[in-house]
Amino acid sequence: MNRNGCKKLRVIDSHTGGEPTRLIVSGGPDLGDGPLPERLRRFRNEYDHFRSAVVNEPRGSDVMVGGLLCVPVDRTCAAGIMFFNNVGYLGMCGHGTIGLVATLAYMGRIEPGEHRLETPVGTITAVLHENGEVTVHNVASYRVAAKVPVDVPGFGRVHGDIAWGGNWFFLIDNQEMDLTLNHVESLTAFTWAVRQALRAAQITGTEGHEIDHIEVFGPSKIAGVHGKNFVLCPGKAYDRSPCGTGTSAKLACLFADGKLHEGQIWRQESIVGSIFEGSIKVRDGQIYPSIKGSAFVNAEADLVLDARDPLCMGIRA
Description:
The protein has 317 residues and is α+β, with helices and mostly antiparallel strands. Helix content is 20%, strand content 38%.
């Protein structure tokens, strides 16, 4: 902190298929050295103003996903990471992990090869390829229910699959909606209405966890690409990337339907045209997705937290 009472946070920004990630590399809160779920609880309960300061306006935006770089408990891991957005915290973030690996490489902390990473939902591995692409081997993913009906005011009855890919998803097969940037407003209105209807109907993931990601999918018009999606994230911003955890949930549903087998590649297009490649491995009856994509560092900055600024800790609802 300088003599004017200003504190600085060092951040590195990247984007993965158009979806931004802002990584705090120094200056963040001291959360101790306990297990990451314990540190995440402390972050949420005692230092949530740091989350808001980093990703909310006026420094950030609704689409920004933040990550706090942590010293891992397991020192065989290259890093620990806690992801957050404009309204709260994420158990896992696929695009953010790809951005994390690209940023660690940019910082000179890792070389091409496989690396272990600690997250609040478990340890994952990621491969930094020689060409800069990143493959994330995600946590076990699964579908808990298929074609679940929910009555959505203004839209009628909608059916979707409930699946876990590191976050909870409601995946809606809709071949008629135009999944293009020209229709972002109508897609947002529809998916937000679905989320509110799920909450009102008390339709949840396991153990009552809120389904806070809504995905609409249909065919892609790109040759060799199997599907296209629109994903609404918890803070009502849409995912510019094909969504790593959403693609993981999608792969779990495809496997459950017998439409995807080990070794097959599924290519998923985002609303902006970026593409992830997904595949699965089955171990002990569980499905482990792998997602490959690219991220690019596009900024380094010091965020200045000036105690005199009434909006220093971000604009919060």
